Amino acid sequence: MENELRLSPSEWETLKAIGGWSRDRRLLDNNAVRNLVASELAVVTDSGPAITAMGRRVVVRGSPQLWNS
């Protein structure tokens, strides 16, 4: 499934931001967060959005859209 994901630039940046140590939640795109949650790349917790294990794998591997660049 991970290879089939096509993230928009906003979703990609939001996923990377969620997975980072220092995040300014004011900068997160709420629509992107909803889409990432729907794709099981992120979850929403009491403390805000968090990256899932699958989301971390996607970040480590890079976006499939970048593979052909």
Please provide a written account of the structure.
With 69 residues, this protein is mainly α. The protein has a single domain (2-63), classed as Winged helix-like DNA-binding domain superfamily/Winged helix DNA-binding domain (Arc Repressor Mutant, subunit A), CATH 1.10.10. The protein is built from 4 helices and 2 strands, in the order ααββαα. The chain has helices at 9-19, 30-38, 53-61, 64-67; strands spanning 42-45, 48-51. A two-stranded antiparallel ribbon has the order 1-2. β1 (42-45) and β2 form a beta hairpin. α1 (9-19) crosses α2 (30-38).
Give the SSE map:
Blueprint: H1 9-19, H2 30-38, E1 42-45, E2 48-51, H3 53-61, H4 64-67
Antiparallel strand pairs: 1-2
Helix pairs in contact: 1-2
Quick structural summary:
The protein is mainly α and 69 residues long. The protein has helices at residues 9-19, 30-38, 53-61, 64-67; strands spanning 42-45, 48-51.
Name the shape in a single word.
globular
The secondary-structure element order is HHEEHH
Q: What is the CATH architecture term?
A: Orthogonal Bundle
Strand content: 5-15%
The total count of strands amounts to 2
| Low-pLDDT ranges | none
CATH topology: Arc Repressor Mutant, subunit A
